[in-house]
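User: What would this chain look like folded?
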Amino acid sequence: DAVNTLTLLFNEGLYEEVIAYGELLGERYKDRASYFEALVNLSLFYTKGKEKPLEPVKKALDKLYSLEPVFCGVNISKLTRDVEELIRKVEKRKEASRIKVEFVGGKRHKENLFKRLWKRLKGILSKFRRKNKDGYFAQGVLCTRSFRTPYISL
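Assistant: Here's the prediction, encoded as structure tokens.
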């Protein structure tokens, strides 16, 4: 899902990728464009360096106000509170903390993106290296039945 992918990129701190991908997704999915624009604006804030203007954050907050408390599995009400807290910190000239977007449902995305991708890759590779109990490779792991030729009896 596009919302989950963009949210995971944002949580990993890949803000330039969020800006590029979020703009594309906003054009593709018009019904979810306000969420994508909010994450793009927050990413603009984090990529600005030392000046950190508040305009993108306030635009993001306006976009978040237009969404429901739970939007596509994302906890928008907590994200809105975090953005409001970020604005207060920046106005008081305190250091801006990184915001993490939370999913509703608890344990869905506890591990980071790279760990999950690594586990998936290891699972695929283990299919090619499976061994029997005796230490020999399992017969037919690398080829399916369609590749085996039956004997021809005349």
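The chain has one domain: 2-109. If you want, I can go into more detail on any region.
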